[in-house]
């Protein structure tokens, strides 16, 4: 399986938490219940199951929207995303590094309003398409 690793007996499982709570902390700081639940889950995993944990806060990262390279040419949308290669300020690379290379488990916390997740979640998910496209267009795993 792509991204799987064989763990030595003494290795710790790595748990990545991704907060997709879309809030403006500078203008109107408040507690996000979905983010609080994620923090609780990560703390539980760390303290009760001896895991390594990291939380990424999408609202603190600067990453561009998907620009539809797949629609132009399927081979133009492969891992590593063309946007990340062209734009050194694009921080999606941090998400790729943690979600694909580092972690064993990913927990995503997002608000749900009007039966939809946050726009940050969709922005991240669309940019993750390059991972699947790498497999589909090149028949390789990362």
Short description:
39% of the residues lie in helices and 15% in strands. The protein is built from six helices and five strands; from the N terminus they run E-H-E-H-H-H-E-E-E-H-H.
Task: Give a structural overview.
The chain is α/β, with parallel strands linked by helices and 142 residues long. The chain has six helices and five strands, in the order E-H-E-H-H-H-E-E-E-H-H. The protein has a three-stranded parallel beta sheet, with helices on both faces. A two-stranded antiparallel sheet has the order 4-5. The longest helix is centred in the N-terminal third of the chain and has 17 residues. The chain is globular and about 45 Å long.
> Unreliable runs, pLDDT <50, ≥5 residues?
none
Task: Characterize the main sheet.
Answer: 3 strands, parallel
Report the mean per-residue pLDDT as an integer: 87
Count, helices: 6
List the secondary-structure elements in sequence, H or E: EHEHHHEEEHH
- For the biggest β-sheet, the strand order reads 2-1-3
Which percent range fits the helix content?
Answer: 25-40%
- Look at the helices and sheets and give the structural class: alpha/beta
Shape category: globular
| Beta-strand percentage range | 5-15%
Q: What is the strand tally?
A: 5
End-to-end separation = 10 Å
| Radius of gyration of CA atoms, rounded to a whole number | 16 Å
């Amino acid at each position: 399986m792509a991204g799987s690793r064989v763990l030595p007996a003494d290795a710790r499982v790595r748990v990545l938490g991704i907060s997709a709570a879309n809030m403006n902390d500078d203008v109107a700081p408040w507690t996000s219940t979905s983010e609080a639940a994620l923090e609780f889950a990560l703390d539980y995993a760390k303290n009760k199951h001896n895991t390594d944990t990291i939380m990424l806060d999408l609202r603190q990262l600067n990453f561009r929207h998907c620009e539809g390279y797949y629609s132009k040419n399927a081979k133009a949308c492969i891992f590593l995303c063309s946007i990340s290669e062209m734009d050194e300020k694009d921080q999606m690379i941090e998400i790729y590094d943690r979600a694909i290379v580092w972690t064993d488990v990913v927990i995503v916390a997002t608000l749900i309003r009007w039966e939809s997740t946050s726009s940050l979640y969709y922005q991240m998910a669309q940019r993750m398409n390059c991972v699947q496209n790498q497999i589909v267009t090149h028949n390789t795993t990362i």
